[in-house]
Structures
1.
Amino acid sequence: MFKKINFSKRYSLLLAFILWFLTFSFILRIIFIIWQYDEVSFNLFTIFGTLLTGLFYDIGTISFIAIPSALYYFVFPNKWIGSWLDKTLVWFFTSLTIFILVFTFFAEITFWDEFKTRFNFIAVDYLIYTHEVISNIQESYPLPVLIFGVLAITAMILFVFYKLKIIKNTFHSKATVKDRTIILAITIVTALFFSFFITNNQAEWSKNRYNAEISKSGIYSFFAAFRNNQMAYSEFYTSINNKVAFNIIRNKLSDKNSKFKSEGLSIHRTITDTSEQEPSKKNVVFILVESLSGSFMKEFGNKENITPFLDSLAQKSIFFDNLYATGTRTVRGMEAMTLCIPPTPGQSIVKRPENQNLYTVSNVFKSKGYDSNFFYGGDGYFDNMNAYFGGNGFTIYDRGRGSVLSDKIKTTRNNINDDEVTFENAWGICDDDIYTKMLKVADAHYKNNTPFFNFVMTTSNHRPYTYPDNVIDIPSGTGREGAVKYTDYALKRMFEKAKNKPWYKNTVFIIIADHCASSAGKDEIDVANYHIPAFIVNFPEHSNQKVNKLCSQIDVFPTFFSLMNWSYQSDFFGKDVLQSNFEERALLGTYRKLVLMKKDQVMILSDQKKQAFYKWNKVDNSLKPLQMNKTFLDETISWYQTADYLFTNKLLN
């Protein structure tokens, strides 16, 4: 039977196509291993396991891709084999599929260059936001050369098939019903096996993250991410009794200034200022800076002098030098800063349905009489930003490239007009332009005697790393260092302009990164690549200090509210870092791994209800396994289980 299948010439092209795909996938895997030669494990067993696991997932991937061909060969009548219809259909769809797959291989290389991972939920997002992504590709890579290269490789593959008479055999051979049935059955059974019994997570067999990622198949990973963008905590992660979890977190959030409203499954409480000082009503400019890793600053050891202004600001502000981002995406930073909540598994709340009318920091500002405004230099449709901010009390200022807000979102959307733009790339207008727009809006609020909370999201520190020419000494578009230096330059310019405003003395500026520029490492979690700077600027000089307590993005606004001497309602998981009894900890993760870090101990929760406990060496950024600590584990579970419970059950409103 198998001999007959192997030499069935009608299936020559299908079998050659499968062999080609497996070969190219193997070559791509070798490229990644060589690329990350200083990070991957070259242990013989590990390398063999990486390649063998990769082949296994490649077989699963090609089984799905081959189903249309197997079906075609099954139903197409023998008497029409070799007809113009048969040749047209086979040539067209074979050429198109090879072109798409070759392009995908190139896309995997560029994606790896940016994220050091196979396709994941970020790639799924990129498929949705086509304008930004296509523009970014056009501005970052020589697209005509890339397309020509893909076409040339596709033509070369087809030429090889032609010269080996593979295509000729396909059009001059018949297949029995038995052969057709067996080929179709093998293809479908293989695909069903991978659908129901194999998960993408099972490819992560190696403790070395790079080996685990290289073991995956990019296409298979993409569709796995597409299916699992939202993950129910109780289904995927280790859980404890909800009441126990809430008791642990309520205890962590309790202090002399907090009074819980009710017992049970809630963290809602009243925060009462006990300073006996008058509440402040300073304006607030909050700037969430794209991809500003702590490692870019001289303050943290960088030698390139690309953040001179921020380094100077660290000496004359409330500067958090031991603060960690909650995630690796902009939407995670937005979620952490507005909701003060740990990262829940799957997609950020910013991108989930039914995320309007939540209790965010804008509610606190609104209770004090402030107007809240959100500024973004691109189209806020990207990453669902406009829907999230518009649905949670912010007026929108964005580029408005054509997307329309849902009628359910009751907010005002204001376009940033062409005459307000001096430079623009795929992601939006340059930082200098978005700050200029923000200052103009602040002027209008001051004129109307309305205190303002302006939330600005920057875009310049992002591939393609382009910015206005001749403003810094690094040419535009040459790399990350230039984009960081331009980011620093634009912030300095913003402060220079703001200092001439009548509202400046009564305005506080909060500057923090959304996430680091990179989060990839050989371990499960690369702790160092979550370290970000944060500044609170323009409080009285005696308030300035360097805060070296280990803390999180979710703590910044609770600390700020305390500095303002505000009493307010809170559903926030963050706390005032400046309190003497603040318990140091950081909460961070990916869309699948959830982490609690305290001092040098790191607990990681993974889907499939796994957990791991490590000692973190800050010097070499390595993780060393520790014996499991039940108390630490229960606390880690509690932070994430309660956060997920509150959102899922609509208790964050």
Note: Confidence is low (pLDDT under 50) at residues 1-6.
2.
Amino acid sequence: MINKRTIYILLAVVSLFAFSCKKDFNEVNTDPIGKSAVSASQLLAPALVDVLSANMVRNRNFNNELMQVTVDISDAEGKVFRYDVRRTWADYTWNAWYVELTNLRDIYTIANKPESLNASYKGISLITQAWVFQLLTDVYGDVPYTQANQGKEGVYEPVFDKQKDIYLDLFNKLEEANKLLSEGKAITASSDPVYQGDINKWRRFGNSLYLRLLLRISGKSEVSTQAIAKIKEIAETNKGNYPIMENNTHTAKILWNGTNSSTSVYSSPFMISVRAVDFRTPAITNFFIGNLANWADPRVNTTFGVNGVSRLGIAPGPAGLIGVPSGYDAGTSIIKQSYFYSDAQNAGVTLQTDPYTGIIMNCAEVDFILAEAAAKGWISGTGESYYLKGIADAINYWLPTRFTSVSDPALASYVVAADINWNNNLPLENSAINSSSKMQLIHLQKYYAMFLVDFQQWIEYRRTGHPFLPKGTGLANGGKMPSRLNYPLVTQSTNPTSYKNAVAVQGADDINTLVWWQKP
């Protein structure tokens, strides 16, 4: 049976020859899988799809459980929503990400050869490497980096680099990518499932990712001055040289085909990897749906959906559009309420096959990054305009043109009625006296903007402590949100020396050890 990777490579090869009728038939009919060399265009789509597929699977069954989007109702042990995180959770993403980093790195190598030189593929390679390495280091901490993916060169036991050093080099990658992409060198549009060959949009994504990473380490005293200065340069003083995402057409995503086929190209990973009965099994939490319902949010308003089903494809429970508590005690009788429709239920709207679930990074996240930077006084403004734009862009991603602009009266009416309007008199952070703050306002909305985006809700919660999540009495791990995933067990046996050195530097290999940017 032909697997998905074969299909992607075959399509890429066909696209290269589609307009070349003069080529010899035998050359056109050569098996691309049997070739001794591949082009950069052949590697890009399969690598991106495989990384994003792993991200979506773990977003659904790990991030969403920790961050109170859903609850896998059960009294069994090892339930993530109770912070009972087993060591086996670590293997899947580690393996998926490192395998594809080999392909993403090879894109740069191929595009750097004189016979196949292409600055844009080099830039895209650097951006996608930075994207995946950011995930690795934010999820695990210190990880193999400088010696990673060098098995062909005989490096079988790579050292673990410190997170600080990884971040600083990721900045170098993103700087180089911005310069390379500024050349505007064309690529094969059919090889690019994210932007269909639009180099300017890749450049915007790279610089937006740059902002994400800079903000993440901005609280570390040893690098904060440089990080904040760079945020200001990108967002304000030199923004002409650093284009960033400005609207939803710039959002980095792979648009799935919207079918329930598990074999077609660009079928959603939710369709391929998750059975329909499993997709609809988790219950939606009080926290996630309660806010949306209280706000009369368009994303859960059936008026803006299809056939009485909201845009997010949510099925009401026995008591209506309500959720269940997260972190409840084992043995508690919990009745499942609202949940996400699966494809098999023919509801008309389901995220299981929805084309728009393949989000790598969206424009709304950038808006909220800038809102935080402004609220902290790093860039001009109070943060209000960025905050409102973030709300509009987050909703418009699912319901295009729901709000026409930040000044749209409909947006103003929505935020006032929902009681989520900006209040510049609030303190930046919460205190014993003030139960609300600008950071809580920003990050509650950012939480919903990053719905379905890999581990970003969890990572940002670890950085900021926002949004405030209710703590159930049934939580394991002393009620503490896990700070990282442990290293995979296979790493201990295949790379024992580097593993021991990493643990000696970073701390015990468990879920409560803080990564570098979390440490005081």
Note: The longest helix spans residues 40-66.
3.
Amino acid sequence: MKNNNKIQFIFFLFLTISLNAQKAVPVFKDGEAQIVEAFNDSKSWIRHDLWVETSFDTDGDGKLDRVHVDVTRPNQTETEGLKLPVVYESSPYYAGVASGGKELFWNVKHEFGEKVPEPTRSDVERRGKRPIISNSQIKTWVPRGYIVVHSSSPGTGLSDGSPTVGGDNESLAPKAVIEWLNGKAKGYASRTGNEEVKAFWSTGKVGMTGTSYNGTIPLAAATTGVEGLEAIIPIAPNTSYYHYYRSNGLVRSPGGYLGEDIDVLYDFIHSGKEENRARNNKVVRDSELVNGMDRATGDYNDFWAGRDYLNEMQPMKAALLMSHGFNDWNVMPEHSYRIYKKASEMGLPTQIFYHQNGHGGPPPISMMNRWFTRYLHGVENGVENDAKAWIVRENDKREAPTSYENYPNPAAKPVTFYLNAGAPGAGTLSTEKPTSNTKETLVDNYSFSSEALAQADYTNHRLLYVTPVLEEDVHISGLSTITIKAASSKPAVNLSVYLVSLPWNKGRRAKITDNIITRGWADLQNYKSLTKSKPLTPGKFYEMTFTLQPDDQIIKKGQQIGLMIFSSDNNYTLLPKPGTELTVDLENTSITIPVVGGVASFKF
């Protein structure tokens, strides 16, 4: 009898081991999570939604706001007790956005400081059905052994609250969701009920990603220092609403959205409860936003400082992999660079991926996989020892970036160029400072596009200064800086500065990198301070220094690098009546360009 019991025990022991051996678990190879067939059957995935209680009440109903959350997880998290880390994306866009045309944007054809009527306000017609908020990220990460979670940001979709476009609640909402995934916040089966939902399937380790606004929210969450947020991969994130809607004191629109401002974006995303919208509009849009954004001066103020995540980074602990396009003229490349630079200085694990195209564009899946594998699954794959900067070269595919020690390229050295007269044609750029005190004048006229001005042989609507023809390729890496001494014929003037590659490629198959190298905009009234502008004395010269957008580009031999200075930019700035004269003192104006190899790399 004793022998029989012993045999039975051994049998059941082997049976238990055998059954356990058959349980699905994440699989890793070469430091990356692999697709597991047991997780790859979408029909078996468990999908459900819930509401997570936050720490704020932004719709003023006397109750803590709840945010709508959905979950997609392998069925093994239910049937086999499997716990997995979470890839989380949050957005204000999931439930739809406002429809309309130019009437939704501010009128930009007016003089500086002139009061104009507000744009037409539009309501969002909410869309989407429970329990699925979004399908993004799911097919990529669930088969690789992750749970995917989405949430609608405050005041959008089925989430309570109000949009604030960069306000504190947009940081605290994802923080609450991450705390729920760690068992520190409460989730409920309904929007108003008391039946709790537990994240028993979560390991507590969370990674966030997303593009544009959806890429801003991971950074917003990370700046709270919330426990459990181990890694973020923001793609083309807006890291400062001032830098999105202003530039060096100038009212400047994001590319493609002339006349947009922070209140317009609020209307665009406000898809939350219809019965709460009037109150939210009054308290948030028509008070906090409209009173704080200051379209009259474009100055940096406390309102904008409170919506600049660079100012909030001290508590941040999450590992950071940034992604951006050097030719993103919507959310411009400075947004990622400034955060990457600060995170590096703080000693956080950081990498940056730049490509040569426009808005959006994630890193290669292998890079993202290694990042999440290391910081969410805890697999020691050495990603923290990989190159810090990855840049897609001009003729390469996005999946094949070139690695560099850092960005900007450590081999880049500042090369200063000075201006020699040539208006209304083209003057020259030289590394030797001119000795004659020459001044040249342009006449503002927004009717001419920047592209037309760069291609014109002669025009009095821009000033253009070019290098000799390059005999070898020139590699630019970093931020170019212009110091300009100029006078305006009026108390205010737009100042637009481009670096261009000439001759201009007019071909139908011209690449995005062929013509525009980088750009910058500024308000000469802010020559002393970003926070306090001062009307210009007509005819008086003022000196101002500012940086252009970061870039990493190889200018091919046979081209010329051109510095173009003009006034109103009809794709980005306010458009006052043509005729303002802008005069530049060439002797006291220069452009410093970061060149790999320094001045020795310039061969003319």
Note: The longest helix spans residues 2-21.
4.
Amino acid sequence: MIMNYNNEYKRWLTSATADADVAAELKAIENDSAKIEDAFYRNLAFGTGGLRGTIGAGTNRMNVYTVAKASQGLANYLVANFDAPSVAIGYDSRIKSDVFAKVAASVFAANGVQVNIWPELLPVPTVSFATRYLGTSAGVMVTASHNPSKYNGYKVYGADGCQITTEAAAEILAEIEKLDIFADVKQSDFESGVEDGQIKYISEDVLTAFVEEVKKQSLLDDSVKVDKNVAIVYSPLNGTGLKPVLRTLKETGYTNITVVKEQENPDGNFPTCPYPNPEIKEAMALGMEYAKKCNADLLLATDPDCDRVGIAVKNAAGEYVLLSGNETGMLLLNYVCERRVAMGTMPKDPVLCKTIVTIDMADRIAADYGVRTVNLLTGFKFIGEQIGRLEKEGKADSYIFGFEESYGYLSGTYVRDKDAVDGAFLICEMFAYYKTQGISLIDKLNSLYEKYGYCLNTLHSYEFDGSAGFAKMQDIMAEFHKGLDTIGGKKVIECQDYSKGLNGLPKSDVLKFMLEGNCSVVVRPSGTEPKLKTYISVSAVDKETAEKEEQIICDELAKKFL
């Protein structure tokens, strides 16, 4: 919503006095019209991903006021749609995450919504799990996932433990937009809510139940002997993964684990990796140093809210190599299929769920095992929704694996979001299983390329900050919607426009250009950041050829973003 930002700024100067940080920032920007405009030119967008933005003062920022307003809107929605509304709340290690979680809890409690809140920071999948396990009406996770430290966010789950649908998001947004951010928000005292039982801490038993579900994802039986004494280096990247990841691994026999000391404890400033995303090598650099010092077999790193996991392994020369989300996903898919066949646990109609920007080679691996692939829009919520559909059809067991190129994996139906606790556990098991047979993950990956053909998938992001950047993003997407005849010298065979709702999927501003030679390019705006993203897929005879062709396509696309 575009607003008169100067008037709103003046209103905040006099009304937003309860939070000292916000009040100080409001005074500090008094003579900076550009900063005032950026902070107040719109309300922070609320969608299927909830809220996400930089922490600070203003309607376009994450602060106690915007969090309280969103919580009031969600509370109104819950009261209108549930007889005895309740919510499960979690938070990560980010700056003010615990504060925002308590603010949300206080608003829900004041509106008669029963609050169940984790007493400590924990991974995002534990909120999806608690929502389902406790039977709450909704879930809220305060997190900005893998974004830089200046960000925070507010993720909303439905009663099914899946991120809210487009329809639910629209209804909640409508409730939020009815509210005055200062006059219409009810809020009670958090500690008083705990004392009177309107706010309850989630018990350790629920976390234990979560860990037990992860452990059930094992694909080993008594017929297989596996050496679990593999040397593992693990980094939670100053986030939430330490306790549940180490607990799961140790309880299943993996005890030779070294934790990256500088990244062990929660710290929302992320001092050693400004962009705490295991997708990028800078975030993995310290872990790589540890792996070399310890001569580790395997490096694992989970992002701050522990729903993504990245890995590195040794190649034939003994050098550590980072694997992409696509590569790890294909290895896990093949491992799941291979072991299920061996154990006789492959269901009658096995299903792989993946996103349209995830490597197409996975479809070929799945087909070889008789597994049906369901391609979905970007975002793990769509994989969660697909699990729900299978469950309603009485076919929940058909789901054997789901993954996305952005390092998110899930092998069970106990949660409806990606889970890096499960991902880390399965990766360690897969690594140990093959290592016991004298096979490295690099060897296994190369054997997959030999069997199914080489495929290279890359992601490139282009950032557009502020109101001017937002407008430019819209203009660029409008140009792409006009169509292209060629990209990187390759003929465009077809343009799949998902804004029209293709293949029964919800409408989404995503374009997929199918190119000659079994190549493709996807262009879409990020749903949570001021970025445009391109996903390039190139099939070729070998890696070197694929990289050359990808570079030509990338260079041409980059010119369109200038």
Note: The chain has a mean pLDDT of 95.
